[in-house]
Amino acid sequence: MFKSLKLALALLLGLSGAAFAADTPGVTAAEIKVGGVFPFSGPASSIGLVGKGVLAYVQSINDRGGINGRKINYIAYDDAYSPPKAVEHVRKLVESDEVAFMFGQLGTPGNTATAKYLTSKKVPALGIVSGSNKFTDVVNFPVTTTSLVSFVTEGKIYAKFLNKTLPGKKYAILYQNDDLGKDYVIAFKEFMKDEFDKRVVTAAYEIADPTVDSQIVNLKSTGADALLVAGTPKFAAQAIRKASEIGWKPTLILNYPSSSVGATLKPAGLDKSVGVIVGTFTKDPTDTKWDKDKGMNDYRAFIDKYMPGVDISDGNYLFGYTQGMILEQIIKQCGNDLSRANILKQAKNLKGIVLPTVLPGVLVNTSEAVNQDFTQMRLQRWTGDSWDQFSEVLDAKSE
Questions:
Q1: Can you name the residues that pair with 197 across neighbouring β-strands?
Q2: CB of 345 closer than 8 Å to CB of 367
Q3: Which residue among 15, 173, 205, 237 is least enclosed by CB atoms within 10 Å?
Q4: Which residues contact 229 (CB under 8 A, 6 or more apart)?
Q5: What average pLDDT does the segment 22-51 reach?
């Protein structure tokens, strides 16, 4: 009788678990549907390549048999970096495609426009590609995790670096006039306090602007000794090129979203980019220092198989691949409980994850209080043909 009771309980628990997973939209015994939105076209299409990397990595997962017997049906739409389109696509993914959760949605404007809706529907919005500091607020964004170092954290790392290397000097910030760019200005204000108005000059640009040439000319005229470009690759490349053309040679820093060799430095001119500093947490697949690195060799083999012909120097593909590994880890940790509650729980329970495409010493750690996959980065300087990493691992608390 005792054995029969144990068997009955086991069957009941098994059925309950299966039903729990089945109750989640997009989850069957054979697949799990996941949604993504990227600017595959439009003014930010260069960073939309992250989505191409995620799609290719998901294909590689499925070719390996999926995860726990399930294939991933990753449905990605193009919002052209337009918030209204992002809203339209996210609603379609949730209400028509019936995805289990969102993963990797890229762009601060689009994520801002859709966050309230996803929260109301209790649909996890995981690994969003935005460093906007507001998304780190786990109370107001309870179903969200992020996959970029907070722009405020990143900005403070740059402010501390400049304060050490160019103390008392004037700094210029060219920023995209949205939450992406404004957070870097906020970071400098918070760090420099009363000194900000005396020593920092700023100029904004709109994502629809054709160039930032006039802003660069104006910033040079202020006599600034350093320039931070806080925006997206197209405008960062223009800034490097224009500064070179007019003979301005400030200490030039690019934010992480513009740190790609292929998307930013090549269009600007690799020679014109010598000395450019970026904060990053990912390896550069073209750097010879990683020639014998297994993680990067695996990535090169992946590109040859799944994305032949793409520019491997474009770090956006690498970031998409890295995102794919985080997605894989979350689903693995879920086991057979693919309820939305457990999906979110596991996304906030990544402990000491070492990713093979990430710089040594940088770990993925999340919790109920910390919803950021990455909180650390290192500074590196472009030499003309490779990156020279010259700092230790830095975070918000680093001096």
A1: none
A2: no
A3: 15
A4: 174, 175, 235, 236, 239, 240, 252, 253, 254, 255, 258
A5: 93
